[in-house]
Amino acid sequence: MLMSDDQGWGDVGFNGNERIITPHLDEMAASGIRFDRFYAAAPLCSPTRGSCLTGRYPFRFGILAAHTGGMRVGEKTIPELLKKKDYRTAFFGKWHIGWVKADEVSPRGFYSPPSHHGYDQYFATTSAVPTWDPTMTPKGWKSWGGNEGEPWKGGFPYVQNGEEVKENLAGDDSRVIMDRVIPFIESNKDQPFLATVWFHTPHEPVVAGEKYKAMYPDAGTARQNYYGCITAMDEQIGRLRAKLRELGIEKRTIVFFCSDNGPSDGAAKKGVASSGGFHGHKHMMYEGGLLVPACAEWPGVIPPGSSTDARCSTVDYLPTIAGICVGDSAIKKSLPIDGVDLMPLMTGENDELERDLFFGYRRLVQGIDGKAIISGNWKLLQEAKKGGKIRLYDLSKDPYEENDLASSSPERVSVMSQKLAEIEASCQRSRDGADYRY
């Protein structure tokens, strides 16, 4: 399970970007299936990450924004399901659904590392690090996290199985992560395994090494760093794909890739990052904040050159992986699941999905209460800002959300609002305790 961080729908070659160099992701998409309408469960990181592991909407498991909570141990996760079938499980990269250091003290969130949620091993940070030299605050950085040239957030952000890591942390952060992934795969090549790899790229601080910046000689500094760090991540994904083939296990290994949300606000507004023409960016309920680049590869099972415009989501990972690895019965006694099994879609047995999708992002202390529902081709959203307006779009005719139909279609707004209220009420019951044993 591969995931990038703040990579927009248009920030990859397989979605038509002709400037960013991503040959390995492009080859992965061409060798498997490209998801043209793949949605993050929320327009920002932590809620989406929880949805990937639980198959549930963020409003259901209670992580409504970044740094506002941690994963509850009562949630059933993909690694917990797979461990029942003797899978070896490991996590690598940006966790961000709980602190990874037991003595870390903060006014928001709590200690809830990968080992509390089914992972045998982990090499993880709590949250963002620079994409080059992840232990040091980069040159020119003037924002949160640290002062230029000083240790990032005061020290060493990576923790491996409970111990702070101090070796092999220089250079490209994606390489730092993959250096831990490869040995895990090599040592488990003869048995089933789950590797969850969540890169920090291209989340700020966005920094690329000189080698990668030089690949974009005609771009400005911001683009050199942004494009360069994505190319560096792509190189590591190529390294992973090559290792699977070297070990001869590629035909019994499925590889997923997606981003956690749309491009960051600043990078999108400056024109550095791309939402592929879709309206909005991270922190917004519009398509640009929710649609992400995504593909999957499984040689011999997923037909090469496949693509789908069916609306899929990060909540679909759990039922899909459970269906492949442990059988559908494994999740029937679990908590309510919002996702669906994508295997029939990926193998060509079905070409469409019929279900509603719900999205949410909430910081009521700041007046933020963004929500959206897609039902059929219709999308109703409440803007994620104080006093956010209700909008209605027909995505079949208006995929870029240019024509708000809310005022001209009051009956449709009423029907969609009722559906949204019902899903939100169900989610509130879940996070208030209905799904957990006492």
TrEMBL record:
<comment type="similarity">
    <text>Belongs to the sulfatase family.</text>
</comment>
<protein>
    <submittedName>
        <fullName>N-acetylgalactosamine 6-sulfate sulfatase (GALNS)</fullName>
    </submittedName>
</protein>
<dbReference type="Pfam" id="PF00884">
    <property type="entry name" value="Sulfatase"/>
</dbReference>
<feature type="domain" description="Sulfatase N-terminal">
    <location>
        <begin position="2"/>
        <end position="323"/>
    </location>
</feature>
<dbReference type="GO" id="GO:0004065">
    <property type="term" value="F:arylsulfatase activity"/>
</dbReference>
<dbReference type="InterPro" id="IPR000917">
    <property type="entry name" value="Sulfatase_N"/>
</dbReference>
<dbReference type="InterPro" id="IPR050738">
    <property type="entry name" value="Sulfatase"/>
</dbReference>
<keyword id="KW-0378">Hydrolase</keyword>
<dbReference type="InterPro" id="IPR017850">
    <property type="entry name" value="Alkaline_phosphatase_core_sf"/>
</dbReference>
